Structure formats: C-alpha cells, structure tokens
C-alpha cells in the first residue's frame, strides 16, 4: 500500500533538506573529516584515530593513561592557556614567575625549564601526534619554587594537551596525571600511580567551597563525572601502559566554572567609570578636536 500523500511530500522535503545540507557542508569544508564523536564538552580521541594513552619516548609505543579531561563546557576563561594555568594554580599545580621587568607568566616546571621527558599524544582532532604543551607539577602552595621541590622529591603532576584541531575543536584540555617517585628514583611512577594522580586532581578540584587562584584571586568550582568502557580503556591492556602499571580505566571529566573574577570585574568597572563620567582631560581633548576640525574645514573651503 502506498503511503498517504502527505507522508510522501514530507519524505520528499526531507530528502531535499538532506541534499541541501550535505551540499552546504561539503562546500564549507571539502577536506574536513567529521568522524570524531562528541561526548559533550570533548570529542572522543579513539573515534578519530587518537588514543587515551600518551606516547612515551623509548618505551616501545607504550604510554601513560590520559585520565582527566577539563571539558570544553567549562567557562570561556578556562579555554585560554592562561585561564587553564590559573585554575591549575588554584589546585596547587604549577608556578608563576616574574621576569626582571616584573612581568608575570605561568609555568609548569622548575623556573620554567623542562627537566622531565616530554611525551606525545593524539587527541583525534586532526593535529596528529604532538608533544605535550606543558608538564604541571605539584607546588606545595609555593607558586615560585614549589614545583622544583616536586621535581626533586616526587609527587603529583600532569602532562597537558588541548583538543583544538580542525576535526575536533572542543577547547577541552586532556591531562595525563600521575604520582611519581623522586628524581633519585628516576621519576618512576609509584604503584597504582596513574589512578592515584587522577584521584588527587579530582579531590583538590572538587573541594567544598571551591578553589582560589593565588595570583588573580579568581574563584573556581568544579563538577566531576566519570567516563569509561568502550571507546575509553575497554581494550587497552596493562602491557600497553608505560611501566606496566594498571589503571581502572576511568577518565574523570571536570567542568570548571568561574564563580568570581576580580580581574574581569576590575576592567569592567574601570570601563564603565570611563563611560559614565568622562574626565576633564577627555572633554578638553574633545573640544580641541572639534575646534581644530572646524578651522581645518574653514581653511579648505
Ligand atoms: C618532542 O619532544 C622531544 C623530547 O622529548 C624532542 O626531542 C622533539 O624534538 C620534540 N618534538 C617536537 C615536534 O617539538
Ligand atoms: C577552534 O575554535 C575557536 C573558537 O572556539 C577558534 O578561534 C579557532 O580558530 C578554531 N580552530 C580551528 C582549527 O578550527
Ligand atoms: C588578591 O587578594 C589579596 C588579599 O586580599 C590582595 O592583596 C591582592 O592584591 C589581590 N590580587 C588581585 C590580583 O586582585
Ligand atoms: C569516579 O570513579 C572514582 C574511581 O573509581 C570514584 O572514586 C568516584 O566516586 C567516581 N565519581 C563519580 C562521580 O562517579
Ligand atoms: C576495542 O573494543 C571495541 C568494542 O568495545 C571494538 O569495536 C574495537 O575494535 C576494539 N579495538 C581494538 C583495537 O581492539
């Protein structure tokens, strides 16, 4: 029995719409692959050629678990590198260094140097395998030298990559967190050190009442969810993991909210003051410009 004509019309219309949307997306970017699966706030690396393990150097292709995601659903400030590092300081990871001019910048390791081995990752975002952006070390609440102490005596740290490639542009940050032994122990990972590293990051991020950056005084609040199973570590074996240390296969997904922002508040109130009450100087400049324009026009005429 043929379907009633209204259904046929709807199907024909739907067909047209599909053809049109296909044509327009093909026009918009003929080369972009669109396989990456959106998990809400980030794309799953395994859906587009990536993996949840880093690539450690000289380790036969093994890697560390990427076990924390700071979701792209986090507030915009956290999408920027400085915003993400500022949040990191609020959970006591990383440092803030002043140069000889007194200009400050965020850094993950001792005096801004890289003393650990770099690892690489493929987040399935079209950028392929690339080195970590930073390694952020525990700072023991000392934003200047604390990370040097972590490097020497061991503790928590995380390696960082951001998912910003053309095939999966979520702005999410992917972290490989772990707890390591001291430098004299060659920075070996402690037993169960990957899951312990992840759990410590989550514990600090989600403390009741939120966290505060010691540099900007911004306050942050974080909600955490777990992701696991197929598409995550379901078929990763312990022998594929660096140092053969097992994981429970859980990825912690954090959403970071900025709950107060003195930095933005300051610039907004400065701007609105300027709008509300132009200073005498600005008024005088305006008057001078108007007079000059009038004179110039009179000369030209
Ligand atoms: C990645 O880091 C390694 C050191 O671990 C270095 O030898 C290599 O040049 C880096 N690659 C890029 C593209 O920066
Ligand atoms: C990713 O998105 C941001 C805006 O969120 C944009 O500025 C950037 O150009 C995009 N990058 C790519 C590779 O599409
Ligand atoms: C942060 O708060 C402290 C203590 O209240 C204050 O001394 C400092 O100037 C503030 N920093 C910024 C950037 O607002
Ligand atoms: C996530 O998994 C960890 C490790 O098993 C567990 O301790 C925690 O309670 C879980 N969190 C949520 C929100 O389910
Ligand atoms: C991993 O497991 C999924 C199903 O859970 C399967 O589709 C996929 O082929 C497996 N991948 C590998 C590399 O074994």
Please write out the topology.
Elements (H helix, E strand, L loop, with lengths): L4 H24 L8 E2 L4 E2 L23 E3 L10 H10 L4 E4 L5 E4 L12 E2 L8 E2 L2 E4 L8 H8 L1 E11 L2 E13 L12 H13 L5 E2 L6 E9 L23 E10 L1 H15 L3 H21 L1
Parallel strand pairs: 3-13
Antiparallel strand pairs: 1-2, 3-10, 4-5, 6-7, 8-9, 9-10, 11-12, 12-13
The structure holds 2-acetamido-2-deoxy-beta-D-glucopyranose (NAG) (5 copies).
* Class derived from helix and strand content: alpha+beta
The H/E string reads HEEEHEEEEEHEEHEEEHH
Question: Low-confidence parts, pLDDT < 50 over ≥5 residues?
Answer: 1-31, 276-301
Distance between the termini: 84 Å
Mean pLDDT: 84
> How many domains make up the 3D coordinates?
2
Instruction: Report strand order across the widest sheet.
Output: 8-9-10-3-13-12-11
Strand percentage lies at 15-25%
Helicity range of the residues?
25-40%
Number of helical runs? 6
Largest sheet: 7 strands, mixed
Description:
With 301 residues, the chain is α+β, with helices and mostly antiparallel strands. Helices cover 30% and strands 23% of the residues. The chain is built from 6 helices and 13 strands. The protein has a 7-stranded mixed beta sheet. It has a two-stranded antiparallel sheet with strand order 1-2. Strand 4 (95-98) and strand 5 form a beta hairpin. The radius of gyration is 26 Å and the shape is globular. Mean pLDDT is 84; it is low at 1-31 and 276-301. The structure holds 2-acetamido-2-deoxy-beta-D-glucopyranose (NAG) (5 copies). The site of one 2-acetamido-2-deoxy-beta-D-glucopyranose has 5 residues, from strand 9 and strand 10. One 2-acetamido-2-deoxy-beta-D-glucopyranose binds next to loops. Keywords: Signal. Residues 1-28 form the signal peptide.
């Amino acid at each position: 029995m043929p379907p009633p004509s209204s259904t046929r019309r709807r199907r024909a219309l739907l067909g047209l719409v599909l053809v049109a949307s296909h044509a327009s997306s093909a026009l918009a970017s003929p080369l972009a692959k669109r396989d990456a699966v959106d998990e809400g706030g980030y794309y799953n690396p395994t859906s587009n050629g990536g993996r949840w393990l880093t690539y450690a150097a000289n380790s036969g292709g093994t890697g560390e678990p990427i076990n924390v995601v700071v979701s792209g659903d986090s507030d915009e400030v956290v999408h920027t590198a400085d915003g993400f590092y500022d949040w990191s300081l609020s959970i006591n990871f990383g440092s803030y260094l002043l140069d000889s001019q007194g200009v400050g910048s965020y850094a993950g390791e001792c005096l801004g140097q890289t003393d650990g081995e770099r690892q690489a990752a493929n987040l399935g975002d079209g950028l392929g395998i690339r080195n970590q952006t930073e390694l952020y070390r525990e700072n023991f609440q000392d934003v200047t030298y604390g990370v040097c102490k972590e490097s020497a005596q061991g503790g928590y740290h995380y390696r960082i990559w951001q998912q910003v490639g053309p095939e999966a542009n979520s702005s999410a940050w992917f972290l490989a967190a772990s707890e390591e032994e001291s430098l004299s122990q060659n920075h070996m990972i402690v037993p169960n050190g990957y899951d312990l590293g992840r759990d410590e990051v989550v514990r600090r991020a989600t403390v009741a009442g939120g966290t505060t950056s010691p540099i900007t005084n911004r306050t942050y609040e974080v909600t955490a969810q777990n992701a696991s199973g197929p598409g995550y570590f379901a078929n990763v074996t312990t022998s594929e993991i660096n140092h053969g240390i097992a994981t429970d296969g859980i990825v912690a997904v954090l959403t970071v909210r900025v709950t107060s922002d003195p930095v933005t508040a300051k610039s907004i109130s400065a701007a609105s003051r300027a709008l509300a009450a132009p200073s005498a100087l600005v008024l005088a400049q305006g008057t001078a410009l108007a007079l000059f324009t009038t004179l110039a026009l009179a000369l030209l005429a």
